[in-house]
Amino acid sequence: MAQSAMPSTQVQEPPVPLRVPVREILPWAVLAAVLGLALLYFVGAEQGATSLFSGTWVHEFTHDGRHLLGFPCH
User: Fold this and answer.
1) How many domains does the chain have?
2) Residue 30 lies in a domain
3) pLDDT in 10s for each residue of the chain, 74 residues
């Protein structure tokens, strides 16, 4: 059988958007925010008067990250 050159008249329905309940996202968003703030603290402020840990090992561990993100450390 030969195929017709006319386009088919079938109408495609638009895709149904995926719904994710906020109750499922909220715990992961809070965890990500807490981890992000902890990382920001250690990279940006863990030295000197605001230091939680004695010594310079945290400063040395995050030293290059400080320079990359523009935090002063010297």
Assistant:
1) 1
2) yes
3) 556 666 667 788 888 888 888 899 999 999 999 999 988 888 877 776 777 777 777 777 888 888 888 887 66
